[in-house]
């Protein structure tokens, strides 16, 4: 299953909800959401900086990842950016493949 890093930023309303619920309740809600599309959460960390939350997990496909992103954004409580993660072995496979490419201006 594809692995993703979700970088989440809370809106004012989302931050207020986090203050009311706490971090462990939020992690449980995120795990339920990911599991509802057939995925699993591997790690969940709150952070300081441009993003408030980082989640690493797997979902069956890009459509499931898009479902999570749309539901999160539609709530108005948070905005999520999805990053597809590759293992070192997957990168080795990419390096072994070739593609026809012409650099701009070449």
TrEMBL record:
This is GYD domain-containing protein. InterPro entries: GYD/TTHA1554 (IPR014845). It comes from Antrihabitans stalactiti.
């Amino acid at each position: 299953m594809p692995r993703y890093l979700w970088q989440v930023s809370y809106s004012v309303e989302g931050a207020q909800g986090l203050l009311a619920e706490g971090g462990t309740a939020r992690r449980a809600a995120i795990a339920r959401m990911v599991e509802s599309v057939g995925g699993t959460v591997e790690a969940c960390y709150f952070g300081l900086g441009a993003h408030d939350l980082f989640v690493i997990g797997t979902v069956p496909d890009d459509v499931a990842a898009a479902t999570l992103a749309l539901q999160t954004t539609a709530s108005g409580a948070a905005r999520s950016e999805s990053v597809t993660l590759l293992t070192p072995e997957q990168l080795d496979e990419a390096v072994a493949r070739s593609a026809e490419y012409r650099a701009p201006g070449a």
